[in-house]
Each structure stands twice: as C-alpha cells, then as structure tokens.
Amino acid sequence: MTHPHPPSVTVGTGPVRPDDLLAVARRGARVELSEEALVAIDRARSVVEELAAAPTPAYGISTGFGALATRHIPVEMRAQLQRSLVRSHAAGSGPEVEREVVRALMLLRLSTLATGHTGVRRETAQLLAALLSHGITPVVHEYGSLGCSGDLAPLSHCALALIGEGPVRDVDGQLRPAAEALAAAGLTPVELGAKEGLALINGTDGMLGMLLMAIADLRMLLRTADVAAAMSVEAQLGTDRVFAAELQALRPQVGQGLSAANLVRILAGSEVMASHREDKVHRVQDAYSLRCSPQVHGAARDTVEHAATVADRELASAVDNPVVLDDGRVMSNGNFHGAPVAYVLDFLAIVTADVASISERRTDRFLDRARSHDLPPFLAGDPGVDSGLMIAQYTQAAIVSELKRLATPASVDSIPSSAMQEDHVSMGWNAARKLRRSVDGLARVVAVEVMTAARALDLRAPLAPAPATAAVVALLREHGVEGPGTDRFLAPEIEAAVGLVASGAVLSTVENVTGELA
C-alpha cells in the first residue's frame, strides 16, 4: 500500500506550535529537525560525554536512577545501564493507547531533545523523528504513568522501539516487532549512550499531548454547544433578550460575552423567535438551562483558555532531569513533576461535565409537554404508541452521570513510589486519560441535544427557523437523522449526529451562514 507524504513539520529549539502537534498526531505529518536544533543537540552532548569520562559520579550519566542513584556505574556497564533502564521502565499494562496520543508524546519528547538541554546524540533524536515520519507507532499501554519523573512507562515503550525492541504499529496499523518495522523502513536501531535512556523517558509529554488535543476539541465543541443552545432556545420558544450585549457588559466575563454574542448571531432571522418576541407576559424569564447558557458555556471557555496558557508554558519547557544548562553545568531538578498540567486537565474535566449537564437539561425540557410549549410528549409521532426521543435522553443522562464521575480530580491523589524517593506524584496521565473520555462524552451529549432540537424545529412549522439553525436541520436530514414520525431504530441516527458534531461539521455548517463564531 502506498501512502501520500503529508506536509512536514520542522522541530527547532523553540516550542512546537499546537497546530503542528495536531498535524503530526492526527494527520500523520512528517517530522524533521532543524539545523539549529542539531547544533544545540551536539553542544549538549559534548558536555555529557565530558562528564561521562570524569571520575566524579554524575546523576543519570554515570549513576543508577531514582532510589538507586547512589551507585556509580563503571564505563563498561553504561550501555547496559541505558538498555536496562528502558527495558525495565517499559512496564505498561492494559489496552493500547490511541495512535494520535503516542505520536503526540513522541513529537513533544523530540521537541525537548531539540532544545539542547538533554544531552542525547543527534542520531538518537533523528531516529525518533524518522519513526514519526514513517508512521511507526510504538505500542503504549493505558497504565504505567504516575505523572511524575515524567510519563515514564509510556515514554519507555517509545524508547524501546528506538533500540529495536518491543511491538509497534506500522504505517498500515499492522502489529510488528520494532526491529522488523525499522528494517522495512530502512532505519537502524541505536545503541543508547550515557544519559540517553533517561532523556528519552523523563517528560510530561503524554499528558501534555492529550491536553493540547483536548483544548482543540473543546474549543470546537463549546462553540457547537452554543449552536445547540440556540436551537433549544428557538424551538422551546425562549427569549433572546437576555443575550443582549448591554446585559453581558454588566458582567464582563470574556467567555460569557462571546457565547452570548454567538447565540444572537445564530438566532438572527428566525421566524420562530419573532413569533413571540413581543409576548412580555408569558415569556418574561426562561429556565436557567436556557437563560444561563452563555454563563455556563462562557465559564467553560475561560477555563479552556487558562488551560491553553499552562499548555503554552509547558510547550516552552525543557522537561528532563538532569538538564544541561547553557553554561555547561548539568543540574538535577524537579521540572518533571506534572502538577501544572494535571491540575488543568482535571479542571477541564469539571467544566466538560457541567456543559454536558446543562445540555442534557435543555434536551429534557423538549420531552415534557408541561415545559415544551405545546410540543407533543417526547416529540413522538403518536404518543403512547410511539416513545419518540424518550430513550435518547436516557442515553444522554447516562453519559452525563459518567462525566460527573470523571470530573473527580485525579491530581488530588498521590501514591509514593521508588522506595519513597518519589514520594509525591501528580497522576497527570490519569487526569488526561479520563479527560479524553469526557470530551467524547460531551460530543455525544451535545449531539443528542442537536438532533432533539432539530426535530422540535420541524414541529414548529410553518414557522421557519433561523437560516443558521435551518442549515443544521438540513445537514442532519442529509446524513440520515430523520425528522418527526413513527418510531424507528434510533442508535444509527444518534451515531450519525455524534459524527457530525465531533467532526466539526455542525459548527462549520452554521459558520457558513453566520461567519466564524467567537
């Protein structure tokens, strides 16, 4: 099978751009090292080799690791030291981690190597780049990282592939021994020199890669949640007066103002909204789930942007221990502790659960005749004979309940390890893993709201919805999510809606009408 060569990403001494990470992780972009990076790598390597030749022990270069750091390792055993480190730390267990996560952590580790603060050889860094370019993905397992001393086990499984050991997936996704996959790609494994094993495994790259992908996904999903909220306000005959800019200005929270402005733009030109706009007796105040959507969505947006600030700082970091400083000193440090990343991963799981929760509440209002402003019970074709979308809301509720459980912070836990040398850890990898499940759950919950609101808008005919929301209804119908009628097999329709939400198709369809949303 032949594969087109996607665009190349160049890794230099500066931070990886989030867009470049997405290109490598999700779209298979090739990777190369800049000449500046290679010079920096060579400069740091010369420092390590000088220390390796010295009689004085230097941690990570001529000693053991962690609680075994007191042993000075003789020169003739140091190649074995590096192999032993990688082999013993490649101790993950459980299901395989997704390809995009492994590629993200490999790229981020390469970025740290390229800073010239880790002391690896250029051929080691170049081989890591080559694995990415050839689509060779080491098998990494769900369990094994405590988020301190870096994502040790996940990164060790990647380092194992560099020495030609362990299983990998090739560019076609086939499981193969690393040595075989490297040979097929014309690549030669490396024999790790002093310090290299430690430099390859001592970073927050797994949790950071998952954070960056979650940020990208949530930025899209929160704007899609604005679309869903607008459709619900419209189809439930709610008021849009509460989204007015002058009201938002009284509470200048940035995300709230952006979300409210989005709702106003999405609802522009709606006959449904116009039909009751002057009814100031029965439409004075809507339920919180409608009226306060910008406040909840906006707070979530602000949280995402805080997380992005932390991620940007982490991208600009050289996380390793010990590190080679610009003046040639090699210093131990604690920068591998994942607390900054772990905290925001947990924070994002909290807001993800809450945005899903308010989405489910808006959906539920459609199904209750007492609250839906004369829509049929459960939006059913023949209520009693038909159940309509009753159980679609059950599915939503089940997901929301799971998201609330996933919102329990991982970073408040710590289990000491390494004979109490590593006596406080971040659990940031665990925080990242559960956030990925949370983001998937949010897409599913918002999708059910969108398909429910679309059915309700059809039931408001002959009043026409806003051009933007009408475009979403049309998109759903084109992809097999049918309108009102007798009961049918719903699971395929839900999955179709989920696909349209998760891919960004719902958002882009709206933005084709409104222009780019904030």
Automatic annotation (TrEMBL):
EC number: 4.3.1.3
Protein's name according to its UniProt entry: Histidine ammonia-lyase
Organism: Nocardioides flavescens
Domain of life assignment: Bacteria
Chief location category: cytoplasm
Family from the record: Belongs to the PAL/histidase family.
Record-level GO cellular component terms: cytoplasm
Catalytic EC class: lyase
Reactions this protein catalyses: L-histidine = trans-urocanate + NH4(+)
Keyword Lyase: yes
Keywords associated with the record: Histidine metabolism, Lyase
Pathway: Amino-acid degradation; L-histidine degradation into L-glutamate; N-formimidoyl-L-glutamate from L-histidine: step 1/3
MF-aspect GO terms: histidine ammonia-lyase activity
